[in-house]
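Task 17 of the worksheet. Students: predict the tertiary structure of the chain below and write it out as structure tokens. Keep your answer in the requested format; marks are given for formatting as well as content.
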Amino acid sequence: MLRVGKIVAVHGLQGAVVLKQIIDSKDWLKKGDILFIELKRESFIPYFVETAKSASGDEYIITLDDVGSPE
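Model answer:
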């Protein structure tokens, strides 16, 4: 498994999050990709990416399947 970044903030009220990437590649994240998110230590949960758009050089705004609120 490759670590690609960290979720640093929520974006809006529909469940979008800001992902700060730590890899040098751009435009690598797209709809349908799977991100394994570590909610608890050593517990990785798979989430499907619904949308992903580059917000700045090292940040993406993404929405994940089955996540519809900031909570």
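Marker's comment: The mean pLDDT is 85. The first strand starts at residue 5 and ends at 11.
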